[in-house]
Amino acid sequence: xxxxxxxxxxxxxxxxxxxxxxxxxxxxxxxxxxxxxxxxxxxxxxxxxxxxxxxxxxxxxxxxxxxxxxxxxxxxxxxxxxxxxxxxxxxxxxxxxxxxxxxxxxxxxxxxxxxxxxxxxxxxxxxxxxxxxxxxxxxxxxxxxxxxxxxxxxxxxxxxxxxxxxxxxxxxxxxx
Length: 176
Hints:
Order of helices and strands: EHEEEEHEEHEEEE
Strand content: 35-45%
Number of helices: 3
Structural class: alpha+beta
CATH superfamily: Electron Transport, Fmn-binding Protein, Chain A
């Protein structure tokens, strides 16, 4: 991992990645859990014409990656499958964080079940479908498209974080 201090101008120390990554664990969109009233994740994908597509999503941080769920017919999924480069941004209590990464569709039943459990434990009553390769639930976000919903792992390639407390700080990391 390469680290770059973005706050040298203000003589602030370089931030450590471990606390930033730890701040991503357990975020939910449930009201009263952060942000203005919750933690919203923003996914940016690339449209076929090269323009950005930004949409609010529910995402989880698990095993050093973001996990996103979407119906394959939704624009975000179509974009990810055509061009897997994407960015996820979220404000936590301590950091404003932006993670660039590469998304891949995950169909391994054991991994899909692990993500399903994490999402269910976080309050969304999902479960794996009959194939074991996608999710189903009584409801999902309207932007996810119809069930079944598929799981995408976003492996970080770069991250930036702005520490929003005390003196602050800003750091960029590139992951090899």
